[in-house]
Structures are given as C-alpha cells and as structure tokens.
Amino acid sequence: MKTNIVESIGELEKYLQESVEDDSNMFSILDWWKVNSPIFPILSLMARDVFAIPISTVASESVFSTSGRVLGPFRSYLTHKIVESLICTQDWIRGSISDIIDYEKDWEENQQIDNELSKMK
C-alpha cells in the first residue's frame, strides 16, 4: 500500500513538472490523456473519472453559485453526486498555480507532523 502512495506522489510530481501545452484550437485534452496514460497511469484514471461527469442542462452560473442555494425545487433532479462533482470541478478550475506550488510546502509540513506523531507512539 505504501509503495502505491509513493508511486502516486512520484507520478504527480512528474506531471506537475511537465511543460504546459500550447493553448490552441486543435488541442484535445482527451487525446492528450490517451497518449500520456502510459506515463501517468493513476492520474489518467482520475482524469477519466472527472471527464466522465455528464454535462448538465442547468445554467452553469446557477449551479456554481455556492453563495446561495445550490439545489432548489427546480434543480432537484440533479443528484447529490453530480452537484458535488460540479462544485469540486469549480474549485479545481478556479484554483491558481500558487495552489500547486503550495502543494510541496504542505506536503513537507504534513511529513513533519507525521514524524512528530510517530515519535509520540
């Protein structure tokens, strides 16, 4: 189990070090993951799950408005899982590059906490 976690972290670090693709009309994110799935097997499975989220016919601004009611009588046909997926996707999209950079710092802090806790046992 621990080796899987270490492999996953190594895969994420390798992915984060990849150069950014050119933003062009010809770029297809699905094709990119298809080509790169052997390099990033775990992340490609996660991407497949995210991209499998069905498109909703509800206006995106009303679904992504987390300041008010997300589900109401007219939107009750959306399942809890779909609403959760939409809100999570919104957070991921709105995340900035600084969040990615802070990941490494957070990881080191978590490792220090884990080390301290293991010493207490």
Automatic annotation (TrEMBL):
<dbReference type="InterPro" id="IPR012337">
    <property type="entry name" value="RNaseH-like_sf"/>
</dbReference>
<feature type="domain" description="HAT C-terminal dimerisation">
    <location>
        <begin position="11"/>
        <end position="93"/>
    </location>
</feature>
<protein>
    <recommendedName>
        <fullName>HAT C-terminal dimerisation domain-containing protein</fullName>
    </recommendedName>
</protein>
<dbReference type="GO" id="GO:0046983">
    <property type="term" value="F:protein dimerization activity"/>
</dbReference>
<dbReference type="InterPro" id="IPR008906">
    <property type="entry name" value="HATC_C_dom"/>
</dbReference>
<dbReference type="Pfam" id="PF05699">
    <property type="entry name" value="Dimer_Tnp_hAT"/>
</dbReference>
